Amino acid sequence: MENRTITEADIEAAERLLGIAYSARERAQMIGNLDGQIELAEELRKVELGNHTPMALRFDPRLPGFEMSTADGVSVERPDMPLPDSDEDIAFASLPELGAWIASGTLTSRRLTEIYLARIERLNPTLFCFATVTPEIALAQADAMDALTAEGKSLGPLHGIPYGVKDLFDTKDVVTGWGAEPYQSRVPDSDARIVTLLRDAGAVLLGKTTLGALAYGDIWYGGRTRNPWNTGEGSSGSSAGSASATAAGLCAFAIGTETLGSITSPSQRCGTTGLRPTFGRVSRAGGMTLCWSLDKVGPICRGVTDTALVLDALNGADMADRGTIKAPFAFDAAKGIEGLKLGYLPEAFGDGATEVDHAALAAARDLGIEVVEVSLPDLPYGSLMNTLFAEAAAAFEDLTLTGQDDTLTRQDEAAWPNSFRKARFLSAVDHVQLDRLRYLVMQALDGLFDEVDALIGPYATGPMLVASNFTGHPCLHLRAGFDMLGSRGLTALGSKNLVAGTVDETAERFRVPQGISLWGRLFEEGTILNLGQALEAKLGVAAERPPLAG
Fold first, then answer.
1. Beta strands 204-209; 162-166: pairing state
2. Cβ atoms within 10 A of the Cβ of 199, count?
3. CA distance 176 to 174
4. Which residues pair with residue 255 across a beta bridge?
């Protein structure tokens, strides 16, 4: 920077941005060598660091003494049910049902694909949940699966079943726009790892589901993705399209990602079942990076068992993603929950808890397992948010420094452009201290799961939304009931937490779903899946469809 003169007044002003205070003598001492520090930073900014360039440091959620379970394998029985006469009933069927019909030849993958494509054509203009639809690819893949079926071959439980993938995962020769104006014409030349895995598992790609720009919220360059239960409000985000499309029966399942609530929040809003796996279980290679140490990939479905089948196809370490960890995945749908101990934080069911929340806790007690109060150490969990802001700002530094952030549609105080700019004033020293705080939080949750097998609560329970995302613990969010609510506003990332949008109390009210979350031990998703199955059956609310679904 030419003609740069740093004064003591500049330093004093900067102190207020960082929440510190130096003396006049200390400021005077800095004047002589601040230029060198700034020049080093400017030299770094000349290096082109693309979104796919990883950090050298990588996050590992395992603490000393962690022992990986050796249990492996997924067991889900295929139901013996007749094929429905109604296309809508077929569209909303579970993955085991669809798989059984395809395997028996009573339903072809082509017919199922055509059912979903027709529903997309009819409902997407209202929901804005698909950014790109790929009918040619879908029908070609469906025909290939039908040919294998005719030969008596199957690629597994997802054979011939159509899905949508969040539009931050690369798809060869198909636009992958990340929901953001600067990238809306971006066409990759290869597939993301999970796209390859799902194709190998026989799943049929319908297209790219929408996400809020750069994986935040539900506003993207094509509009605002809608909640199928109340199309006057957004579907929350950032896996906005995946939740909306799945809830409305536009696909059999969809893929989402979560950095801080991006699977659980839209699942809460749209009434879907979202599984955020343990950090490191699923490869992110070929996906847009928001935060290297936080991003996770998981399924969004209409039932608990479905999420297990999808996760099984995605599970596995990948050399192309330095954050992945080799881990087996075990789930037996027939396994009981006897002997499990379920914890809850009492403050989560205090002021602010809804009737649905209390009913879900009561239903959990009725399962015949031990349900106990637990607590977490008093730590500034919300402070960890600054790590998210720093990583996200680094991932998209070029937008900030070139001014391209001005092209994003959302420009309010809580939107990414403002957050990225503010993050330039975060302290590197504080960032190191945040990493040390993160270790204390890892110890805190590790201690909690020494006491109980799982934790239950509203998805934004106390510190759990922030804490468990930073420790990497898995979370299953499922529908628990319904409430009458007015339209909810934009999701906002605050300085300490994630706000899922304030409710307009004066607006017309709609019957919308509400959910409950289950958190579990690292790499033990099977436990919360079995609990989720039992709770899903006890609550009996998973099958209801949005009003526009018919």
1. parallel
2. 18
3. 6
4. 165, 299
d(Cα 340, Cα 324) in Å, to the nearest integer? Answer: 29
What is the pTM for the complete model shown?
Answer: 0.96
Cα gap 266→257, rounded to integer Å: 11
Q: Which residue has the higher pLDDT, 83 or 460?
A: 83
**What CA–CA distance (Å, rounded) separates 400 from 483?**
40
Please say if 296 is a catalytic residue: no
Whether 168 and 211 have beta carbons less than 8 Å apart is answered as: yes
Euclidean distance between CA atoms 550 and 545, whole angstroms = 8
How large is the average pLDDT for residues 267-291? 98
pLDDT tens column, 347-401: 999 988 999 999 999 999 999 999 999 999 999 999 999 999 999 999 999 999 9
CA–CA dist 336, 430 (Å, integer): 46
Q: Which domains does the chain have, with CATH numbers?
A: 83-380+429-549 (3.90.1300.10)
List alpha helices for 61-128, DSSP H. 87-91, 95-104, 109-127
Q: Which residues contact 546 (CB under 8 A, 6 or more apart)?
A: 228, 229, 247, 248, 271
pLDDT of residue 165 exceeding 60: yes
Cα angle, residue 227 at apex, residues 223 and 232 outer, rounded to 5°: 70
- The sign one gets for the Cα dihedral 351, 480, 524, 204 is negative
Please check the confidence at residue 502 and state whether its pLDDT lies above 70.
Answer: no
Asked if residue 2 has pLDDT above 70, the reply is no
Q: Which of 94, 109, 236, 262 is catalytic?
A: 262
What are the tens digits of pLDDT across the range 227-263?
999 999 999 999 999 999 999 999 999 999 999 999 9
Give how far Cα 349 sits from Cα of 32, 271, 442, 461, 496, Å.
56, 20, 23, 9, 20
| Residue 166 falls in the annotated catalytic set | yes
Counts of helices then strands in the chain (DSSP H, E): 18, 19
pLDDT score for 4: 75
Please, how many CA atoms are within 13 Å of residue 494, restricted to the half-sphere of its CB?
Answer: 9
Active site residue: 235, 236, 238, 242, which one? 238
262 catalytically annotated: yes
Q: Among residues 109, 166, 239, 283, which one is catalytic?
A: 166
Shortest CA distance to 277 belongs to which of 534, 521, 441? 521
Strand segments, DSSP code E, in 356-441 are: 370-373
Per residue in 432-472, pLDDT (tens digit) is: 999 999 999 999 999 999 999 999 999 987 799 999 999 99
pLDDT at 495: 38
